[in-house]
Amino acid sequence: MNIEIDPNAGFCFGVVNAINKAEEILKEDNTLFCIGDIVHNNIEVDRLNALGLQAINHDQFSKLSGKKVLFRAHGEPPSSYKTAKKQNIEIIDASCPVVLNLQKKIKKAYREIQKSNGQIIIYGKKGHAEVNGLVGQTEGKAIVVENTADLKLVNFDLPVVLFSQTTKTITGFTEISEYLKKECKSSLKINDTICRKVSNRVPLLKEFANQHDVVIFVSGEKSSNGKLLFDVCKKANQNSYFITCPKELNMDWFENAKSVGVSGATSTPTWLMNETIEKIKLENKSDLSMSKIKKIGVLTSGGDAPGMNAAIRAVVRAAIYNKVEVVGVLQGYEGLIHGDFKKMKSHDVSNIIQKGGTILRSARSEEFRTIEGRKKAHEQMIANKIDALIVIGGDGTFSGARIFTQEYDIPVVGIPGTIDNDLYGTDYTIGYDTAINTVIDAVDKIRDTASAHNRLFFIEVMGRDAGFIALRSGIATGAEAILIPEKETHTQELQKYLEKGYKEHKSSGIVIVAEGDKSGGAYTIAKEIGKEHPEYDIRVSVLGHMQRGGSPSAFDRVTASTMGVAAVEALLDDQKSVMVGIVNGEVSHVSFNKTIKNKKKVKDSLMSLNDILSI
């Protein structure tokens, strides 16, 4: 069975821009408000809600004060900007440039036509967010029409200027235009303001639907664009089915189907369509061809982590076990670009499971970030007959892999190798357990000298964007306080806490600080505490890169071995653009889109545990 995604489906630029802006803000702030759902897709909305995005209506918006509010791609009327200024609201303006340009045109046309007592007509859906923003440019006086029957509201003796909502169909707009040409007795100016990227999807979708035996259309139930496009799809191919998520798939639809197409609305995320494909493949394993992958490449990228060698060993031996050739790619994506390959046999990975670092070596590649660099990498794969890739690394590694597989349809599976344990879709990443044990060993030694001299130590551990290492190692070492990026700790609160614990008990103190903590790192915090409390004998220790090194723990070796074998099996199972992980002790698969877009959260139960145990 051949399965493919409609290359023209998925988010339009405006939606992508809005979501990217929301995610950027939510990396720094836990809460961001948005007027209405950012996109008409419940699953994507739920994902963003989990990150802290809260949808509000205009009444709620008018009662906010001093908050950050995102204006989505649909645009907002002038009244919303006035309210924001009055209420001291910071606007994150993600209005689509096409919509903003249309608003300006309508505003200008309204000013001019007022002189002749003319009318602005907008062909669009009444009450739609974009249309409300457009009507706002005319002080609420524009006439909104959905069909020719609504044109009875127009006075044909007066001048008329016609515009269209950007996402309406050309056919409907043409029908309105022709009707006005016949009926208008005064001047008529027609402005075709339909976004061609959206409108062109109709003929392209017809063509796509006709190419497949079965078409699955993924869309939110609220999406008017989705309903319109599905109707187009259904007319072109009767074996078209509408779903909102992969759970709604019926495997009876695919009986005797040799070709399946997956498409979606402009509000459908690509990761959701990818998950739909994976669901179809998993349920139809017996129909999938496993013979096309003859040679696999494996590479490590980004920061090294203890256990990467164990993963390489597992990939090599699992590939050989399945009679698939395997080559090691040296220096990560740089090696992929320059063809730095090494054929791997079983003996090449002997005696490496206990070693830290990576025998393939790692590097960050700026060239792979470019179209030209990825083109070179693809050419090297073709020249060396490499059919698929397994990449071991973190979110940067997976971001590169995702783009690469989208551009060249290369099967790529990821193995999470990062000590930070911050990847969504797996309980543990390779290297995390070893890094924690390294921190524990170091802190235990520091505790000895702290006790001997009655000192307060601020110990900085890795975790630029996540506090998983700090939190677990802090609990395990009995730290008096733990500072992590996910929880804002004010210096004054820390001072009170230390006065209650450290000062009253007159004993040693340990404060674990993640390097990405918002208070500024161990040295900055220690300096501030020292100013307020010169009586403290304060020392700072930055553990640094020692956390990345050393022999991997038994847990990391087993985890890496399990994931390495699972990655090979995933490729042979015809999966691509997914990360293998371990959830509740079982192997899981999550799309690159999902693991990159979602933020893994620290467990509140661990935060509470530390509060209880540190009294």
Automatic annotation (TrEMBL):
Binding site for (2E)-4-hydroxy-3-methylbut-2-enyl diphosphate: H40, H74, H128, T166, S223, S224, N225, S267
Protein EC: 2.7.1.11, 1.17.7.4
Domain Phosphofructokinase: 295-571
Keyword terms: 4Fe-4S, Allosteric enzyme, ATP-binding, Cytoplasm, Glycolysis, Iron, Iron-sulfur, Isoprene biosynthesis, Kinase, Magnesium, Metal-binding, Nucleotide-binding, Oxidoreductase, Transferase
Main location: cytoplasm
PROSITE patterns, alphabetized: PHOSPHOFRUCTOKINASE (PS00433)
Compartments, as annotated in UniProt: Cytoplasm
Residues of the active site: E130, D420
Pfam families the UniProt entry points to: LYTB (PF02401), PFK (PF00365)
Necessary cofactors: [4Fe-4S] cluster; Mg(2+)
Binding positions (dimethylallyl diphosphate): H40, H74, H128, S223, S224, N225, S267
Pathway where this protein functions: Isoprenoid biosynthesis; isopentenyl diphosphate biosynthesis via DXP pathway; isopentenyl diphosphate from 1-deoxy-D-xylulose 5-phosphate: step 6/6; Isoprenoid biosynthesis; dimethylallyl diphosphate biosynthesis; dimethylallyl diphosphate from (2E)-4-hydroxy-3-methylbutenyl diphosphate: step 1/1; Carbohydrate degradation; glycolysis; D-glyceraldehyde 3-phosphate and glycerone phosphate from D-glucose: step 3/4
Residues the entry annotates as binding substrate: T418, I419, D420, R455, M462, G463, R464, E515, R539, H545, M546, Q547, R548
Residues the record lists as binding [4Fe-4S] cluster: C12, C96, C195
Entry-linked SUPFAM superfamilies: Phosphofructokinase (SSF53784)
Cofactor note: Binds 1 [4Fe-4S] cluster per subunit.
One annotated Gene Ontology cellular component of this protein: 6-phosphofructokinase complex
Catalyzed reaction equations: beta-D-fructose 6-phosphate + ATP = beta-D-fructose 1,6-bisphosphate + ADP + H(+); dimethylallyl diphosphate + 2 oxidized [2Fe-2S]-[ferredoxin] + H2O = (2E)-4-hydroxy-3-methylbut-2-enyl diphosphate + 2 reduced [2Fe-2S]-[ferredoxin] + 2 H(+); isopentenyl diphosphate + 2 oxidized [2Fe-2S]-[ferredoxin] + H2O = (2E)-4-hydroxy-3-methylbut-2-enyl diphosphate + 2 reduced [2Fe-2S]-[ferredoxin] + 2 H(+)
Binding site for isopentenyl diphosphate: H40, H74, H128, S223, S224, N225, S267
Swiss-Prot/TrEMBL GO biological process terms: canonical glycolysis; dimethylallyl diphosphate biosynthetic process; fructose 1,6-bisphosphate metabolic process; fructose 6-phosphate metabolic process; isopentenyl diphosphate biosynthetic process, methylerythritol 4-phosphate pathway; terpenoid biosynthetic process
Record: residues binding ADP: R313, A314, V315, V316, R317, R447, G478, A479, E480, K506, S507, S508
Positions contributing to Mg(2+) binding: D395
Positions contributing to ATP binding: G303, R364, S365, G394, D395, G396, T397
GO molecular function: 4 iron, 4 sulfur cluster binding; 4-hydroxy-3-methylbut-2-enyl diphosphate reductase activity; 6-phosphofructokinase activity; AMP binding; ATP binding; fructose-6-phosphate binding; identical protein binding; metal ion binding
Record family assignment: Belongs to the IspH family.
Protein name (record): Multifunctional fusion protein
Species this chain originates from: Labilibaculum filiforme
Organism lineage: Bacteria, Pseudomonadati, Bacteroidota, Bacteroidia, Marinilabiliales
Gene: ispH
